[in-house]
Every structure is written in structure tokens, then in C-alpha cells.
Amino acid sequence: QQINLEANRASSTQSAQATRPLTSRAAAMSTVTMVQSADRVSLASSDYAPSRQSSTPPVTIKSIEVRLKPSTKEYAYFDNIERTNTEYFADSQLDATRPPPDPPVDYEEKRRERKKKMVEPPVSASSTLSKESKDSSTPSEPMQKIPEPPVKIRPQAIPKDEKPVFKRNPYRQTVTKKTRTYVVDGVEVTSTTMHVLGRQQNLQLRRQEMQELKRVQREESRQIQELESQASHQNELQEKKQVQEKSNMHRQYEMDMDSLMRKQKREIEDAERLQEEELRTTSKRLKYEQEKDLQAFQNRLKQEMKIMKQEVEMLPRAQRKDALKHRKERAEEMNLQKEQDFHVQLRMNAEASIARMRAKHKEKIAQLERQFLEQKHMLLRAKEGSEWELEDKVMSERYVLHRRLLKDKFFLLRTQMLARQQKELQQAQKLHAREEEELIRALATDRKRLPKMLRGEAKTRSAMYKESLRISMADPSGGDINDSCVASTRPRRRG
Asked: For a 10 Å CB count at each end of the chain, is N or C smaller?
């Protein structure tokens, strides 16, 4: 009766849902309800009941309780799969008693219970039927439970706190682990099964691998950018250092040149001042000497006049006056001419002395200038030599820095290539492991389905054989066909 009620409930629910469009949540609920009802019917049928031998006493099963442990933690998807190396078609596996199929997992059970607690359900006919069954049933008979119709709950009755935070991905794989206890031929058996619900997400896994590779690529670009920033920073520091050294060198040589120019100017000014003083003293000395020579010359002329007067006095008295006058005029003219010549000679001597002194001074100044010019040229040559040395040093430092940066870059690229290779190798290993686990899971599923397939194939072959016998037999009566089938199925005894 319970099986019929559940089947009617499933059919009514399916017909009601087929007439109106459902949301994703309602569709999922209806699918779970249909699967539950179908599984209950299949559990109650005799096809899935374990075969009991005639020798063993029957055991009355009071109740089989299937307890589903709520999975509140994440499971390792493929860690608990049993991997056996037994033969594919083993006789022990074919003859072993298999447990009934696992009931489906209802993930919305807790939410429905919370909704039922929040919303008071209306009085239904199932409660009255259950009360009547309680009154009418005896204590020895098991209690029949009539399922209640589903309670319609409006979305407004659900509080905000109870609404799901995220939307469940329909392609997400879910691993459920169930432990069931049942009795087979009087022996209590406990089986633990694990189901992987949902299809394999090759696209999602590939997308995850691509995201990991993109993450690795972003990390590589970040490392390369960081290395380039460090290289540019080091280049800037090196450029600043080189510019600072060059500016310091130029400043030092400019200071040396300025000091040399100031020293040259000071020494030339001192030399000119000394020369002017020497020229003044020399001119004074020459003037004094000229005055002295002029005085001596005038004294000599006076002495000559005295000698001339004495000579005139030695003449007779009558001739003295005319001779004195005549000789005096002649002597005065000659003395005047001699004095003029003497002045010219003195002036020429003074000018020659001063010219010689000036030439000597000019030569001394030129020597000083030549000496300072040589020092300036030496300083300029030293500056150019320092610039060449600094340029050579700069080029060598740049070469060393660029070689080190290039080595660091290639070392980083090598490290990144090794890391990328390791990541791709890990992804390939994971892919191979997933494929191997899928093959193992498919092998286990095929092993479970093999006996049923063999039985179905045997039934099909038997039916085909019966049909062929019926067609080939001349007698259409069914008894001979059955007898021939039984005779054909009996093993032949060797005589």
C-alpha cells in the first residue's frame, strides 16, 4: 500500500509539474522526489532482493534505516576510491552477494525541515489516516507511514538569513560518503560507498589550469618588471654617480684654473709694480747723473772760456778787445752747439737705458706669461687625461653593470622556465591521475553492471533460441518446445 501511495504521489507530482513551468529550485525538488519514489519502489521489488539459499533459515528484517551523514566538510574527491588489482571477471565477484543500490541523496532536506518549522503546515488527510491506522493496527504489525503532501511555501515566508548566500553550480562535482548496514542470509553486512555526483568538468578544470598559467604569467611579468625597475634604478644611480664624478672633476679643474689665473694676474701685477718702481728709480738716477754730467760739462766749458781769456790776455792790449770779442762769440756759439749736442746725447742715453729696461721688463713679463701658459696647458692636458680615464671607468662600469643585469635577467628567465615546466608537469600529472581514476571508476562500474548485463543477455539469447525452435519445429504445440528447451539446457553426460 505504501509503495502504491508513493507511486501515485510521484505520478501526480510529475503531471502537475508538467502543466506549469518550474523554477530551477522547484525542478530540482521534483526530480529528487521522483528519484526517491522510484528508488523506494525498486527497493521493495523482488529483483533487487538478495538471493537466499533454501538451507538457511529466513530472517525477518524489522527495518532498514539508511542514515545519511551531512557533509559539512570538503572531501578529497578521489582519495578513497578502492583500487584493486584482481581479475576482471573473477568468479568470487560474480557469485558474491551485492548490496541493493544506494538511495539518492537529498541535499534540500535540511532546508525543507527548516521551512516546515517556520511555516505551520495545514491539517491534511494523511494525519487522520495515520491516526486511524494507529487505532486499527496491532502492536505486532509494522506501522504504515503515509507520506504527507508537499507544503507550498511562498518565498516571502523565508527569512533573509536562511536564503543561500551563493548559487550552487550545476556542474560542480559532489562527493558523498554513505555507510549502510543490512542483513544478507542472516549475516549483518556493513558497506561504505562513495558517490561522485555531477559530471567531470573538463572545461572547468582546463579553465582552472589556464588561470594557474595566467597567474604564473602575471607573476613572471611582475618579476620581470621588478627586475627592469631595479635595473633602471641601478642605471640611474650609476648615471648620477658618473655625472657627479664628472661635475666634481670639472669643478676641481675650474677651481685650479681660477687659482692659476689669479696667481698669474697677481704675479704679473706685482712684476709690473716692481718694474714701474724700478723705472722710476732708474729715471731718477739717470736724471741725477745727467745733471751731474751737465754740470761737469758746463764746468769744462767755463774752464775753456777761462783758458781762452788767458790766451787773449797774452795778446797785446790793442788786439785784446777785438780778439776777446771775436773768440768769445765763437766760443759761445761752439759751447751752445756742444751743449745742445750734449743734451741730445744725454737724452738718447737715457732713452736707450729706459728702453733696455722696458725690454727687460717685457721679457720678464713674457716669461711669466709663458710659464703660466705652460702651467695652464699642463692643467688642461691633465683635465683631458682625467676625462679620458673617467670615460674609460664609466664604460667599464656600464659594461659590468649591463653584464650583471643580463645575467640576472637570463637567470630569472631560466628560473621562470623551470617553474613553468614544473607547473605544466604537475598539471599533466593531475590530468593523468584524473584519467586513471576515471578509468578505475568506470572499471568498477562495469564490474558491478556485468552480472546484470550477462543475465539480460542470457535471457535474450534464451528467448531468441526458443523463438528459433518454435519457428523451426513442425509441431506448433508448446509442450514439445518446452521439453526441447529443457533438454537443450541440460548438460550432456558423456557416456
From this structure: C
